[in-house]
Amino acid sequence: MTVRDWPAAERPRERLLRQGPQSLSEAELLAVFLRIGLPGQSVLELARRAIDRFGSLNGLLNATPGEIQAMPGFGPAKCAQLLAVIELARRALKEEVRRGHLLDSPPKVREYLRLRIGQLRHEVFAALFLDAQNRLIDDEELFRGTLTQTSVYPREVVKRALQHNAAAVILAHNHPSGVAEPSRADELLTRALRDALALVDVRVLDHVIVAGASSVSFAERGLL
Known about the structure:
Elements: H1 12-19, H2 26-34, H3 43-54, H4 57-61, H5 65-69, H6 76-99, H7 106-117, E1 124-130, E2 136-144, H8 154-163, E3 168-174, H9 184-198, E4 203-211, E5 214-217, H10 218-221
Helix pairs in contact: 2-3, 6-7, 8-9
């Protein structure tokens, strides 16, 4: 039985239009995007298998193009469409973050960072550069490392903050291990960066560690 054989009131696309996207499960939303399934497999079954393959919808959205295309039903065209949707979501969220006062919207900052670096397979260190009103000037991926460590140079962070004429920064990095808890090395690095940036009157407002869908704020933990 395919989705077309379902009663109209139960079909994901019709329910989305009638009740809104929030009424659909993750698999149903993905099914609407995919539109068609495979011989002997409905589009909803295909969507569920794709999510299961990567452990979560977030895992699918952060998969590489090669991994996406390796799944049945996901050719180059579907892969390109999915990557375009993901990038549109990132840019829309960045626009929303850029317009607002970052200290008033920590959930948006975390969501943006999760979308930006949460599912990367390698470790990266990024910074959000803020003006005197704590509005986003720009964000940059400053350093990239292996799965276990990243070399971060305070001198380069200070240099980029000055080039952006930033008044404050929010530091961020990911833990590809999937565990967001800060290590002792993370704490020492944060203090070194805080002290270096203080010399040029740039405040460190927070350091956020992201691991998949979870995150930890140094400010909330009292670690700054």
